[in-house]
Amino acid sequence: MLGSVVEAEDIVQETFLRAYQVSEENIKIKKAYLCKMMTNLCLDVLKSARYRREHYVGPWNPEPLLIESLQAFDPSEMLVQKEGLSIAYLRMMEHLAPDERATLLLREVFDFPYSEIANIIEKKEENCRKIFSRAKQKVSHVEGESLNYEKNKLIINRFIEAFQMQNTDALLELVSENVTLFSDGGGKVTAAVRPIASFSNVLALLYGVIKKAPEDFYIEVKNVNCQPAVVIYMNGKIQSILSFYISNEKIVEMYITMNPDKLPIH
């Protein structure tokens, strides 16, 4: 819903505190009550976040969630995480109005019936169906995203090897000629303030970054938002995270997040 770990943690805490103050005798269905409370709190945050994002310096990427191990989660929850956590999906969610975002997630990810969604967002059931259909059309851009972790990891490892060897032919097999890179510095660090489009421009920017890197620069492929991503270290700490949108075994979009407020500390 929010695309931010910090904001999500705040909402969970606020929901807990509010629910704790309500007598259980007044709650008929706990799950429905908590979902409605949390969804409404998220909607309030989203309405204020839209204003902040409109004034954000440069492209806005969702906050990368570094996951040290795929086994860190209950396997039954993995489907929800994979479908709803990729940077490409979260970024596309930014194009949705708050009600569209809530309806899409409640229906698509959590499989709520329209009758329950109508109760949660306080709209008519028929309206919820229309909202869902409209939201689906807006995010259709990422419908073809590959979520196969191991296949995507192989593609990214091949990309790194070809990039390091400056093998243009190999890179063209892995990266779309129309690839776009979204660089998020948030005005805190130097970053491209507009999306970088085309194979040649994106590669030129990445080579430029590497050329200026300090001697202790190194990278690791890690699990970020349940997908493989390149974690870039400089001066002994995470300097940026490069995530990918892969479709039909080709890298279609890249998202490099450098805003220090969005990066893991370790």
Automatic annotation (TrEMBL):
Q: Which InterPro entries match?
A: ECF_Sigma-70_Domain, NTF2-like_dom_sf, RNA_pol_sigma-70_dom, RNA_pol_sigma-70_ECF, RNA_pol_sigma70_r2, RNA_pol_sigma70_r4_t2, RNA_pol_sigma_r2, RNA_pol_sigma_r3/r4-like
Pfam families, per the entry: Sigma70_r2, Sigma70_r4_2
Which terms does the UniProt entry file under GO BP?
DNA-templated transcription initiation
Domain of life per record:
Bacteria
One GO MF annotation is:
DNA binding
Name all RNA polymerase sigma-70 region domain ranges.
Answer: 1-50
Q: Which residues form the RNA polymerase sigma factor 70 region 4 type domain?
A: 88-138
Q: How does it assemble?
A: Interacts transiently with the RNA polymerase catalytic core formed by RpoA, RpoB, RpoC and RpoZ (2 alpha, 1 beta, 1 beta' and 1 omega subunit) to form the RNA polymerase holoenzyme that can initiate transcription.
Recorded protein name is RNA polymerase sigma factor SigJ
**UniProt source species:** Pseudobacillus wudalianchiensis
